[in-house]
DNA sequence: TATGAATGAGCTTTCATTCAT
DNA sequence: TATGAATGAAAGCTCATTCAT
């Protein structure tokens, strides 16, 4: 049912010229960066946790920041981007009859992605305020493509008369906010709710909220 | 029209036993923490920016973390909490006939707050993942009170038949997500939109989305 | 029975131009220096313990070292010296018939002194390795006088045929070592012994050990 | 004639996993601690004197206090203890006919030890008042063993009727005081005396002083 | 390739001391 | 006289990074 992949594992396996040590470093660094933040994690700690010498880290990653980028950039550039696009195609290709079906597919799709890449996403969200390059990379390589794709989709359902004639970006924002609010609640507050029911209610809310005014 | 106050200024003026230097330290630290993050800001930088000796910082704040807390805790404990409560009273006391009027009042009220305290809120959001005490303090002193208040309010409008009979927390989440999505877009992406129109659309969306099903 | 005085109290009372604060500083500093050593005690700690402002210390004592000297020098220069001399006179004037009576008087006399000035003596002994001036002061102002006096006394009892014809300094060393060993055991190891009996045994040991060889 | 070893040299040579730099650090630290005291010696000074970077010190010794302990503890735990025991055995095994012969052997034995380890012993004596752990370590690991051994020995000579029937601890105290008084005079006052003669007189004094009363 | 000792700049914090009030 | 805020040098210590092995 799920063909989603864990980005980190993927990266580790796929890349054949990755040493065993290198894998260990990436895993350890991901763990620590997520927990304490990039700036507050020392290369010494990472080395210890990875069970390698400190020098080994710098043999593979010129600087500490390089290490961060090698965790977070692939997620965006190599994986997040293509995957999103691919997934969106997948979603669109099925040509869901109704907007609400499309939204449901999106939610489930992103949910699986999140579930498998929590740590890296967490690092990304935590560090993006402090690294302008990260921000720019994200906007340039991912953001723009995703947004333009979504605009098409919104237009598609608007032209079918299923959703209200607001600016596409507004529709996207309202929808995305609602979905991300759901994820935030789920992963930060961690409530004991029934996922399926909650998703149904959310979609019902979106459907009603975005229904064209008569 | 706005009686909102800038938290930092407030703190600086109100507290009579704050030295001039201490004020400068707080302003400089807020600036730097917001920009580079707590861990990546050195006390040396803060001292230079504040135009004081480094020792002066530690005369007033036992540790660097103390300095962070003395910026962020008052916001929560002394100011955010009471203000929210007071504001909510203000909002509720008017007993807005319609849920949408209440939401509009809330948006404007929080908008003003945000506008005047962007930096401190930014620090708070950026640092909360790395400081468990901050998280606990926030939940204990602020979160719980605010949520229980909002639950009352939702119940109020539900009993008037204005909004759908979902669990109050779900209603709150859907509403809050939408509003926060608006703020996120406004302050992060900084689009050139028409605030008033955007707010109107958002409220319309919420109203429709939360209308009771017939 | 005892006319011994507590050096610190003496100093505090006697000196009329000592402020109340100054007294508190001296008491606090003595306490801390004895406990943690001079170098490891901060003026801040002393100020807190004394209940005065840090500046007040430096109003009275130009430097931290000045404070140390003003505790330890009077003990030597003003008090230890004269007192020893005076006391020795007292002891000698009685012209104890036997050497052992003289020794006993000495032990009791020094015991009382120690008992009342443990802290200051402790500071003196602890700090003397690190402060050459202290060492020189002691030798110059106290040591020489005391030694030359003791040489006279030893000569006195040697000429009476009561003690062996060794160099006076050797006799002094053997006697002083024995007495100081007793004090060291008493104040450092703090054994549960009978003081009087122990002193009797010690004197008996000295008497036998220093008896002229036939 | 002497098989005594210099503790520090011993430590430095023996331990094969000691870096060259580490050796230099230990030598420099010993020098400085002896001269200025632990608290008054800065790690910066030690680094300069050792010709290493300051960071190097902390790579090998987690804290400055660690450095002190790594100089002083081995002396007690690994070396002083066993050596004393071993030496005492050596001394006892010869089963000196007379108590005075035993004492003489002891003096010479300890004299050699002192001569070769003056600095470390000096540090130990100077710092013990300020470091309770040091005190406890010493009592636990060294003091108790040495004392119980000495009690046996005293009993041995008492049963042979050579020394007076005082409590063994009293005999030990009187003897040790006399010997340590000799060492104190020798190493602190540094008199120009004839060692051998002085030792003979001291032993004669002890013998007479501890002779059983008829 | 991997190590880990070594570095020195820079970190947070402490300190004795000064000085305006 | 007494204060305590302010100082800046120096403390102990951490850090990312280098390099000989």
UniProtKB/TrEMBL annotation, chains A, B, C, D:
InterPro entries from the xrefs?
Answer: Homeodomain-like_sf, HTH-type_TetR-like_transc_reg, HTH_TetR, Tet_transcr_reg_TetR-rel_C_sf
Q: Where are the transmembrane segments?
A: none
Q: Which residues bind DNA?
A: 42-61
Q: Which UniProt keywords apply?
A: DNA-binding
SUPFAM superfamilies of this UniProt entry? Homeodomain-like, Tetracyclin repressor-like, C-terminal domain
- Ranges for domain HTH tetR-type come to 19-79
**PANTHER family cross-referenced by the UniProt entry:** HTH-TYPE TRANSCRIPTIONAL REGULATOR RUTR, REGULATORY PROTEIN
Q: Which protein are we looking at?
A: TetR/AcrR family transcriptional regulator
Q: Which organism is it from?
A: Sporosarcina koreensis
């Amino acid at each position: 049912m799920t063909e989603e992949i864990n980005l980190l594992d993927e990266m580790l396996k796929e890349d054949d010229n990755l040493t065993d040590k290198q894998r260990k470093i990436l895993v350890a660094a991901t763990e620590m960066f997520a927990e304490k933040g990039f700036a507050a994690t020392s290369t010494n700690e990472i080395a210890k946790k990875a069970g390698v010498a400190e020098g080994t880290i710098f043999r593979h990653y010129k600087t500490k920041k390089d290490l961060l980028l090698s965790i977070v950039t692939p997620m965006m550039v190599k994986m997040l981007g293509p995957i999103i696009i691919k997934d969106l195609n997948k979603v669109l290709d099925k040509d869901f009859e109704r907007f609400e079906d499309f939204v449901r597919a999106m939610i489930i799709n992103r949910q699986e992605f999140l579930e498998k890449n929590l740590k890296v996403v967490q690092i990304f969200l935590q560090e993006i305020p402090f690294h302008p390059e990260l921000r720019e990379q994200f906007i340039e390589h991912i953001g723009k493509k995703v947004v333009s794709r979504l605009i098409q989709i919104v237009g598609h359902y608007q032209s079918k008369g299923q959703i209200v004639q607001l600016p596409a970006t507004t529709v996207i924002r309202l929808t995305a906010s609602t979905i991300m609010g759901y994820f935030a609640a789920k992963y930060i507050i961690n409530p004991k709710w029934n996922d399926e029911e909650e998703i149904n209610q959310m979609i019902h809310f979106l459907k009603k909220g975005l229904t064209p005014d008569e």
